Amino acid sequence: MKNKILSSSTMQTQFPSTILLLLLILTTYHFIPSLSQICNPNDKNALLQIKKQLGNPSQLSSWDPTTDCCNTTWQGASCDTFTPTYRITDLDLSDLQLSQPYPIPPSITNLPALTLLSLANIPNLVGPIPPSIVNLTILRYLTIRNTNISGEIPGILSQIKTLVTITFTNNKLTGPLPASLSSLPVLGGISFDSNQLTGAIPESYGSFSKTLFTGLTLSRNKLSGKIPASLANLNLAFLDLSRNALEGDASVFFGSKKETQQIVLGNNKFGFDFGKVGLSKNLEKLDLRNNKIYGTLPEGLTALKFLHKLNVSSNNLCGQIPSLRFDETSYAHNKCLCGSPLPPCKT
Asked: pLDDT at position 75, please?
């Protein structure tokens, strides 16, 4: 009987302790930081400043100061949640309807962990690319596309040694191509189409990595001058220099041992013997229209299994057209090309 009384007394003593422990656990759990509370305060402040510097566009209404920038609801902002730092690594701002013209927000460069920055389809984004962009020291992918950004491409981009791609298409950029970009060790491609760039392609561009640098697109600019012979060192998958005023020997881009998939050189002043070039077995698109290219069509064209687009019209080519499945618009307005689909060659 005494043992039962002791047991009952012990249970009465332990019961309140159990309740207290449970309350402690619940209280502790309540204060464990969740994903809505882990945002780096400096990054959150920078994002809120960016929003303000863009005139608080409605597309960024999800950037609510009462929530956290790492909770996946902040439009275009992504955090690194795999490390304890929880920093903003990706900022992809697209289709912002700005109430008036605004420059690139200076606070963007207060996001030191950015690896991707994309500003696309923002007509009211104006002004130059700020020099402070070099503060983004680990940036890998930089895109400014379909905006009214103007001024020169800053040569100091070469200080961001981690850059893999630079895309500045359809803006109002002017001035020369920065020669210093060739010093970027892991750069895989540049795309500066549809701007107002002037001058020649730098000789230094032949120093881009032969194994990493695979894309060079500079179409629809005001570039001029001769193609540097050094560009023969490149092994490009994609090349587009169309609609400029470039001249010289563009045969440097061809080669049977290269991995080229697309060569677009139309509407320039290039002159070289097309019949003597080697052709990449991977070639899918070849556009040489409106140049001063001479010679014959290479017999190797018939061996290209992936070639689906060819245009050599408006040049100085002669000779028999190889047996290919392209219509007459692909060959029209040459000096003396002949054979199907053009009139037969004279015997």
From this structure: 94
What's the pTM value of the predicted model, to 2 decimals? 0.87
SS3 175: strand
CA pair distance 112, 132, nearest whole angstrom: 11
**DSSP state for residue 190 in the 8-state scheme:** E
Measured CA to CA, the distance from residue 3 to residue 281 in angstroms comes to 93
Chain mean position to CA 88:
19
Position 184, amino acid: L
Q: What is the per-residue pLDDT for 324? A: 87
> In the Cβ-directed half-sphere of 166, how many Cα atoms lie within 13 Å?
23
* pLDDT value, residue 143: 98
Q: Is 220 exposed, middle or buried (0-12, 13-18, 19+ CB in 10 A)?
A: buried
C-alpha closest to that of 289 among 263, 251, 308: 263
> Which long-range contacts link 79-83 to residues 24+ away (Cβ below 8 Å)?
79/39, 80/113, 81/35, 81/38
Residues 72, 74, 78, CA angle at the centre, nearest 5°? 55
Alpha-carbon separation of residue 49 from 11, 43, 74, 84, 206 (angstroms): 59, 10, 14, 24, 41
What dihedral angle (degrees, nearest 10) is formed by the CA atoms of 29, 34, 37, 38? Answer: 120
Cα-based distances in Å from 118 to 53, 140, 330: 17, 11, 37
Cβ-proximal residues to 77 (8 Å cutoff; 6+ apart), any chain: 47, 63, 69, 88, 90, 91
Residues 245, 224: Cα–Cα separation, whole Å? 5
pLDDT band at 82 (very low <50, low <70, confident <90, very high): confident
**How confident is the model at residue 1, as a pLDDT?**
43
Distance CA 169, CA 73 (A): 29
Q: Is 294 exposed, middle or buried (0-12, 13-18, 19+ CB in 10 A)?
A: middle
User: Which domains does the chain possess?
Assistant: 34-175 (3.80.10.10), 195-347 (3.80.10.10)
pLDDT at 111 over 50: yes
